[in-house]
Specification:
It is a single chain. It contains five helices and seven strands. By secondary structure, it is α+β, with helices and mostly antiparallel strands. The model has no long low-confidence stretch (mean pLDDT about 95).
Protein backbone atom coordinates (compact mmCIF):
# COMPACT_ATOMS: atom_id res chain seq x y z
CA UNK A 1 0.00 0.00 0.00
CA UNK A 2 3.00 2.30 -0.06
CA UNK A 3 2.34 3.41 -3.63
CA UNK A 4 -1.24 4.64 -3.07
CA UNK A 5 -1.98 8.21 -4.05
CA UNK A 6 -4.82 10.59 -4.76
CA UNK A 7 -5.28 12.17 -8.14
CA UNK A 8 -7.79 14.61 -9.51
CA UNK A 9 -10.24 12.85 -11.83
CA UNK A 10 -8.80 12.68 -15.31
CA UNK A 11 -9.01 10.94 -18.68
CA UNK A 12 -6.03 8.65 -17.92
CA UNK A 13 -8.24 6.58 -15.61
CA UNK A 14 -11.42 6.54 -17.69
CA UNK A 15 -11.69 2.76 -18.12
CA UNK A 16 -10.77 2.12 -14.50
CA UNK A 17 -13.33 4.63 -13.26
CA UNK A 18 -16.02 3.18 -15.52
CA UNK A 19 -15.30 -0.22 -13.94
CA UNK A 20 -15.47 1.46 -10.54
CA UNK A 21 -18.97 2.78 -11.30
CA UNK A 22 -20.12 -0.57 -12.69
CA UNK A 23 -18.96 -2.34 -9.52
CA UNK A 24 -21.71 -0.52 -7.64
CA UNK A 25 -24.26 -1.60 -10.22
CA UNK A 26 -23.15 -5.23 -9.84
CA UNK A 27 -23.84 -5.15 -6.09
CA UNK A 28 -27.13 -3.26 -6.57
CA UNK A 29 -25.91 -0.15 -4.72
CA UNK A 30 -28.18 2.39 -6.39
CA UNK A 31 -26.94 5.33 -4.30
CA UNK A 32 -23.32 5.19 -5.50
CA UNK A 33 -24.12 3.87 -8.95
CA UNK A 34 -26.38 6.87 -9.61
CA UNK A 35 -23.65 9.17 -8.28
CA UNK A 36 -21.14 7.83 -10.83
CA UNK A 37 -23.38 6.71 -13.70
CA UNK A 38 -23.01 10.10 -15.41
CA UNK A 39 -19.37 9.21 -16.13
CA UNK A 40 -20.52 6.24 -18.21
CA UNK A 41 -22.53 8.46 -20.55
CA UNK A 42 -20.22 11.46 -21.02
CA UNK A 43 -16.88 11.08 -19.30
CA UNK A 44 -15.45 14.38 -20.52
CA UNK A 45 -18.46 16.29 -19.18
CA UNK A 46 -18.24 14.38 -15.89
CA UNK A 47 -14.58 15.32 -15.41
CA UNK A 48 -15.29 18.96 -16.27
CA UNK A 49 -18.24 19.02 -13.86
CA UNK A 50 -16.04 17.73 -11.01
CA UNK A 51 -13.41 20.34 -11.84
CA UNK A 52 -16.07 23.07 -11.83
CA UNK A 53 -17.36 21.85 -8.46
CA UNK A 54 -13.85 22.13 -7.02
CA UNK A 55 -13.81 25.79 -8.03
CA UNK A 56 -17.39 26.48 -6.88
CA UNK A 57 -18.63 26.92 -10.46
CA UNK A 58 -22.17 25.85 -11.45
CA UNK A 59 -22.93 24.21 -8.12
CA UNK A 60 -26.47 24.02 -6.78
CA UNK A 61 -27.47 26.83 -4.43
CA UNK A 62 -27.23 24.78 -1.23
CA UNK A 63 -23.91 23.09 -2.09
CA UNK A 64 -20.34 24.14 -1.33
CA UNK A 65 -17.20 23.91 -3.43
CA UNK A 66 -15.99 20.31 -3.33
CA UNK A 67 -12.73 18.81 -4.57
CA UNK A 68 -12.95 15.19 -5.70
CA UNK A 69 -9.98 12.82 -5.78
CA UNK A 70 -9.54 9.23 -6.86
CA UNK A 71 -7.48 6.81 -4.79
CA UNK A 72 -5.14 4.98 -7.16
CA UNK A 73 -3.42 1.66 -6.54
CA UNK A 74 -1.38 0.28 -9.44
CA UNK A 75 -3.25 2.36 -12.05
CA UNK A 76 -6.65 1.25 -10.69
CA UNK A 77 -9.25 3.54 -9.14
CA UNK A 78 -10.09 1.85 -5.82
CA UNK A 79 -11.78 4.74 -4.02
CA UNK A 80 -13.27 8.21 -4.32
CA UNK A 81 -13.04 11.00 -1.77
CA UNK A 82 -14.77 14.36 -1.72
CA UNK A 83 -13.26 17.23 0.29
CA UNK A 84 -15.84 19.95 0.91
CA UNK A 85 -14.28 23.36 1.26
CA UNK A 86 -16.76 24.20 4.04
CA UNK A 87 -18.43 21.97 6.59
CA UNK A 88 -21.82 20.65 5.49
CA UNK A 89 -24.29 19.78 8.23
CA UNK A 90 -24.65 15.99 8.54
CA UNK A 91 -21.90 15.42 5.96
CA UNK A 92 -18.89 17.25 7.35
CA UNK A 93 -15.87 18.13 5.24
CA UNK A 94 -14.96 14.71 3.89
CA UNK A 95 -16.91 11.90 2.30
CA UNK A 96 -15.38 8.81 0.76
CA UNK A 97 -16.21 5.41 -0.63
CA UNK A 98 -14.21 2.35 -1.59
CA UNK A 99 -15.20 0.11 -4.49
CA UNK A 100 -17.12 -2.98 -3.37
CA UNK A 101 -14.33 -4.99 -5.05
CA UNK A 102 -11.65 -3.51 -2.78
CA UNK A 103 -13.27 -3.24 0.64
CA UNK A 104 -11.76 -4.78 3.75
CA UNK A 105 -8.17 -4.24 2.61
CA UNK A 106 -7.26 -1.02 4.42
CA UNK A 107 -8.03 1.37 1.57
CA UNK A 108 -10.59 3.28 3.65
CA UNK A 109 -8.03 4.17 6.28
CA UNK A 110 -5.58 5.32 3.62
CA UNK A 111 -8.06 7.38 1.61
CA UNK A 112 -9.16 9.29 4.70
CA UNK A 113 -5.53 9.88 5.74
CA UNK A 114 -4.71 11.31 2.31
CA UNK A 115 -7.94 13.36 2.26
CA UNK A 116 -6.96 15.01 5.56
CA UNK A 117 -3.75 16.15 3.84
CA UNK A 118 -5.77 17.60 0.95
CA UNK A 119 -8.14 19.34 3.37
CA UNK A 120 -5.17 20.98 5.08
CA UNK A 121 -3.97 22.33 1.71
CA UNK A 122 -7.21 24.30 1.39
CA UNK A 123 -7.03 25.59 4.96
CA UNK A 124 -9.08 23.05 6.91
CA UNK A 125 -7.20 22.44 10.15
CA UNK A 126 -9.97 20.44 11.85
CA UNK A 127 -11.89 18.27 9.41
CA UNK A 128 -15.35 17.11 10.38
CA UNK A 129 -16.25 13.57 9.29
CA UNK A 130 -19.53 11.75 9.90
CA UNK A 131 -20.67 8.16 9.60
CA UNK A 132 -23.87 6.24 10.20
CA UNK A 133 -23.99 4.92 13.76
CA UNK A 134 -24.43 1.41 12.37
CA UNK A 135 -21.41 1.61 10.05
CA UNK A 136 -18.77 -0.03 12.20
CA UNK A 137 -16.19 -0.14 9.39
CA UNK A 138 -16.35 3.62 8.81
CA UNK A 139 -16.20 4.30 12.52
CA UNK A 140 -12.98 2.24 12.79
CA UNK A 141 -11.51 4.04 9.78
CA UNK A 142 -12.19 7.44 11.30
CA UNK A 143 -10.82 6.41 14.69
CA UNK A 144 -7.65 4.94 13.10
CA UNK A 145 -7.12 8.43 11.66
CA UNK A 146 -7.30 9.95 15.17
CA UNK A 147 -10.92 11.00 14.88
CA UNK A 148 -12.26 12.43 18.14
CA UNK A 149 -15.96 11.74 18.68
CA UNK A 150 -17.91 14.98 19.11
CA UNK A 151 -21.29 13.32 19.56
CA UNK A 152 -24.28 11.94 17.74
CA UNK A 153 -26.42 13.97 15.34
CA UNK A 154 -29.56 13.22 13.35
CA UNK A 155 -29.62 13.59 9.57
CA UNK A 156 -33.15 14.74 8.70
CA UNK A 157 -32.64 14.19 4.98
CA UNK A 158 -31.43 10.59 5.26
CA UNK A 159 -33.47 9.91 8.42
CA UNK A 160 -30.56 8.35 10.28
CA UNK A 161 -28.31 8.94 13.27
CA UNK A 162 -24.68 9.77 12.62
CA UNK A 163 -21.51 9.94 14.65
CA UNK A 164 -19.73 13.27 14.22
CA UNK A 165 -15.93 13.31 14.51
CA UNK A 166 -13.20 15.91 14.37
CA UNK A 167 -9.78 15.07 12.91
CA UNK A 168 -6.98 17.60 13.34
CA UNK A 169 -4.76 17.92 10.28
CA UNK A 170 -1.56 18.02 12.31
CA UNK A 171 -1.94 14.34 13.36
Amino acid sequence: MNDLYLTKPNKNYQLSFENYALAYQKVNDAYYFEKYEKALHDFDWYIQDLDDQSRGINIPQDWVATSTFWLIDKDTVVGVVRVRHEEVESAGHIGYDISPCFRGRGYGTQILKLAIEEAKKIGIEEAIVTCNTENTASRRIIEKNNGKLLGTIYDDEEKEFLYKYKIESNN
